[in-house]
Amino acid sequence: MINTVLDQASGLRKMSQNNNHGVKVIAVTGGKGGVGKTNVSLNTAIALGQQGNRVLVLDADLGLANCDVMLGLRVEKNLSHVLSGECELDEILVEGPAGIKIVPATSGSQSMVELTPAEHAGLIRAFSELNTEFDILIVDTAAGISDMVLSFSRAAQDVMVVVCDEPTSITDAYALIKVLSREHGVYKFKIVANMVRSLREGQELFAKLSKVTDRFLDVALELVATVPFDENMRKSSRRQKTIVELFPNSPAAVAFRGLASKAVKWPIPHQPSGHLEFFIEQLVNG
Ligand SMILES: Nc1ncnc2c1ncn2[C@@H]1O[C@H](COP(=O)(O)OP(=O)(O)OP(=O)(O)O)[C@@H](O)[C@H]1O
Ligand SMILES: [Mg+2]
Known about the structure:
Distance between the termini: 19 Å
Pfam family, one: ParA
Strand content: 15-25%
CATH topology: Rossmann fold
Keywords: ATP-binding, Nucleotide-binding
GO molecular function: ATP binding; ATP hydrolysis activity
Radius of gyration: 18 Å
Shape: globular
Protein name: Flagellum site-determining protein YlxH
Structural class: alpha/beta
Bound molecules: adenosine-5'-triphosphate, magnesium ion
Number of helices: 13
CATH class: Alpha Beta
InterPro entries: FlhG, MinD_FleN, P-loop_NTPase, ParA/MinD_ATPase, YlxH/NBP35
Number of strands: 8
C-alpha cells in the first residue's frame, strides 16, 4: 500500500516534468451502436492532426470495428500489457495518419474501472511517464451505458454525443445524458448530428433532443457539428482509411475539419485538472 502511494506520488511528480501543459480530453459517446462514434473520433483526430495538433486517441471500444482495424493498422500490444508491466505505454502507441497516435486499449480496458490500487498507480504512472507530449486526447467509447462508458465520460473535460435522426438513437442519447447528469455530475454535452441529409435536418434533430432534455433534465446541450450522410464514408471504411484523408473535399470531411477547428478552441482547465494523469486518476478513482 505504501509502495502504491509512493508510486502515485512519483508518477504525479513526473507529470509536472513531462506533460506540464494542459491536455484537452474529449470523450466521444452516443449510447446507441453504429451511430458513427469511431468515425467521428478518428476523423476529428486526423483533422486535428492535419491542423498541427498532437493528438492521442484512446480506443476504449471493445467491439470489432475498433480504431486500429478502421485504420488498417497492425497492433501487437495493448494497455493490458502495460498494466501487467510487460512494456511501457510508449511502446504500445500506434501511429496513424497525420501523426496521430493511438492507444490500443482492447480487452485490457474492460477492467480499467475495477483496477487494484497497484494497477491504478501503474496506469497513472504509465501516462505520466509518456515521452511524447499531446495537446488533445480523444476517447472513442463503446456503445451502451456501461460503467466504462460512464467513467470515461465523467473523467473527460468535454463529452461529445453522436446522434442520428432515428428514434432509437435519440432515446439512447437521452438515456445516456440522463444518467451522466443525474448520477455523474456531467451537465454539458456537445452534440454531433451525424448522417443527416441537410444542415436543417441536423438542427431539427438537435431540437428534438433538446426538447426532451430541456423538459426533464438540468443540462446544457450545444450543437457542435452537423455531419452529412456521405457515401464516401463507406468507401473510405472499405479501404481502411478515413474520409478526411481519402476524400478531403467531400461534405462529411469538411464537417469534420470544422469540428476540429472548433474543438481546439474549447477551453482547457487549469492545472492540474488539465493533465492527462488527472484524467486517468479521475477514471480509475471515480
Ligand atoms: N456521416 C456518415 N455518412 C455515411 N455513413 C456513415 C457516416 N457516419 C458513419 N457512417 C457509417 O456508419 C457505420 C458505423 O460507424 P461507426 O463504426 O463509426 O459507428 P460506432 O458508433 O463507432 O459503432 P459501434 O457502436 O459499433 O462502435 C460505418 O459503416 C460508417 O461508415
Ligand atoms: Mg465504434
